[in-house]
Amino acid sequence: MALVKLDEFYPEYREDMSDAEDIKNFDVYAQDNDKVGTVSDILIDDSTGRLRYFVVDTGFWIFGKKVLLPVGRANVDYDNKEIYVNRLTKEQVENLPNFDELEKVDYDYEERVRGIYRPTADTSSMKDTAYDRSSYNYEQEPSLYDIDANNESLKLYEERLVANKQRRKTGEVSIGKRVETETSRVAVPVEKERVVIERTNPTTTTPSNNPTGAFREGEVARMDIYEETPDIRKEAVVREEVKVKKVVDRDTVESQEQVRREELDINADGRPVDDKRI
């Protein structure tokens, strides 16, 4: 029964469990809600792969000391990331052997640890109390090494596809104006006045005595003459109005991926099992 650290026995364990299940860094509390320390590591039975001890760094509670906590004595609260150890006192922790190196954890070391926890554990279920160095196994003391032995839970996980959307720029439309020059023609009708002189011969030759104005030099008839000239100028007017707006085209994009799901395998060695769904 050799003990190894969790990350040595199962290097990829973090990839297969959520943060809530990773018991490392959980706070540990003794009776009266006194904080004992923090879980710094987990020791695994390399022959079975089962958890055996939490390594608790007591920190300032008992400065600079690390101790082992059998997993069966721990009540794990995954939601609050806390571990509670009922009927554990500071004096008991002080009496626990210091955990320095895994290589020093042998049968005698574990017996010292078990000797501290046994008085506060339920030993009524202990199997085959007669044991020695060669015959001892952890299954003999479920109160120390089974996590909630009478009601153990196992979480089954499945993967689900989670669809999200990201908005990204796919292009840009720029609309501007430029000035083009062309020759334009316009026709304007104009009027000009001119003088027409008509001469007529009288039809009668009856003499008139001393007609008024006869034989006066310097007499002049005047008439004003006018003409129209074109007045051409340029004026800017609105020829066309352009409005720019965006419209949204909607479409549905489908995708498929391979997802995993855990199923329960029950090996009861021929014993009857009542599988209920709640």
The fold-level CATH name of the domain at 3-145 is Photosynthetic Reaction Center, Chain H, domain 2
The gyration radius over C-alpha positions equals 55 Å
DSSP strand (E) fraction? Answer: 5-15%
What characterizes the major β-sheet?
Answer: 7 strands, mixed
Task: Give a brief outline of the structure.
The protein has 278 residues and is mostly beta strands. The chain is 9% helix and 13% strand. It has helices at 6-9, 90-95, 107-117, 142-145, and strands spanning 3-5, 27-29, 35-45, 51-57, 66-70, 75-77, 82-84.
Please give a handful of descriptors for the protein shown.
single chain, 278 residues, mainly beta, Photosynthetic Reaction Center, Chain H, domain 2, 7-stranded mixed β-sheet, 4 helices
Describe it for me?
- By secondary structure, this protein is mostly beta strands.
- The chain has a domain at 3-145: Photosynthetic Reaction Center, subunit H, domain 2 (Photosynthetic Reaction Center, Chain H, domain 2, Alpha-Beta Complex).
- Helices cover 9% and strands 13% of the residues.
- It has helices spanning 6-9, 90-95, 107-117, 142-145; strands at 3-5, 27-29, 35-45, 51-57, 66-70, 75-77, 82-84.
- Strands 1, 2, 3, 4, 5, 6 and 7 form a seven-stranded mixed β-sheet that branches.
- It starts with a strand and ends in a 133-residue tail after the last helix.
- The model has no long low-confidence stretch (mean pLDDT 82).
